[in-house]
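Student:
Attend to each token:
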Amino acid sequence: MTHVRRSPLALFALVALVSACGSNPPSLAPSQTAPSPTSVALPSGTPTASPTPQPTPSPTAVPTVAIVPVADYRTIATTIDQAGVEAILAGTNKQFTTLELVDGDSAGILAALGLAQPSVVSRLVLAPTAAALEADLDAKAARLGIVRATDVGPSVRALGWGTLSLFGVARVKSLTDWPLQASLPETASAATFDPSQTWTIAAAGDVMLDRGVYKVVKLQGKGVDFPFSGGTATITSRYCCSSWDWVMPRTKVDDTTQDMRALTSGADLSMVNLEGPAPVNASYHATGMIFNFNQALLAGLQYAGIDWVSLANNHILNAGRQGVVQTITALDKIGIAHSGAGATLAAARTPAVFTIDGVKVAVLAYDAISPGEAAGPAKPGTAELGAGTAPADIKAAKAAGAQIVIVYPHWGIEYKTGPTAAQKRLAHQMIDAGADMIIGNHAHWAGAMEVYKGKPIWYELGNFVFDQTWSEQTEEGLVLELTFSGSTLVQAWVHPTIILDGAQPNLLDPTSGKAVLARVYGALLPW
């Protein structure tokens, strides 16, 4: 965790973006209509007639600005380099066939990279605007764009240059460390991109610390840090079947350098759903659907750099209503913020508030699964999700000064990827009320994503730390890596994960992760 400062007020709260081939995902685009995505070939040859002599204009300042390679949101690529761009123009790049640039910036970008016009003119095309270029990439996955850093938005995937990245948790901290700079025409906007002024969120799904996870951590002695110490893994094959008759993956570990912890602890704000209580007197459950978490295991959340947990779920009362209060006390002692449940209804509906690089972020959480466990005026319980609660709380958070409001709902149907009509209706109502992002859980599968009025809705991130080892879908999940510039979301990377050893999520390699994102993008299509 870096740069996170708790509000002195009461606590109000991907490395590869991969996807399946096929239908296009939504674009996280500004609300205004983008120009038509028209591309034109770079002109070649020389004029046939001499131009009329004109007076020499006064020199115009040409600022040096950061430029970034970008690709389709669904790309499995995470980085490119000089040789890769040259291969595109030579027709030998195996992933990208065309380089696309914004017309007015093309000469400066080509000069900065030392590139000449290719022998095949169609390998280099121009778009009239950055918005048109982004639309082209969405429609033509084999194109690579290079744009100003200030033009990058979440509707494209910003790639690294070699081993360096300008976005995400592992971004360079200063433009002096970013090698891609170009002298480009001055624009009406004087804005410049500064990676030191960006900040990040890591968001994951369900964390359950009883049953099989407790067995691995305590009974097998692997320690409270083990669930959050995963690296990267590959699905090598699949076989039939589990005891529940589900197809299962065979995996191999590629890297054990704790890439997962680097992501969650490196983010400025790291969030999960805590799927159960941590009472004073916890009981280990080898099987069944009642969860109690030994409070000692909460130290694993600290180790992972988790800043906030949702307590709004259908298991938080598994130790009774006093178990809710005891869980909150335990989390407060170790400095982990929370929302979605409380000693009273007012407390359960109060968001946690963080101030990150001067931006006030409010995080709310609600449960739609067990309305009988809702809090009362003087009764511990959850914040119930409904049209009469969430929209009012979102508006109140905005009125109190929150620049970003994130909602973590517990909703939907288990083992389904698509949302119900009620979920979609509530999601849209929350966005209409002012929510900037919705991150859902409960189904235990990675589920649908939607963009509504330019705001992202992840209906279901799936399992993060869980022991549901009886299907590939329940072993997989999503971790979001979100980059903000001020209060603006500029990149949204989605990392597919797989749980190994019944307790430890690992980042999936890009090729393996395509199967996870196929379910995500397929669940709501057509858009």
Remarks:
- The first helix runs from residue 82 to 90.
- The chain is about 20% helix and 30% strand.
- The chain has two domains: 4-17+199-522, 64-185.
- The mean pLDDT is 89.
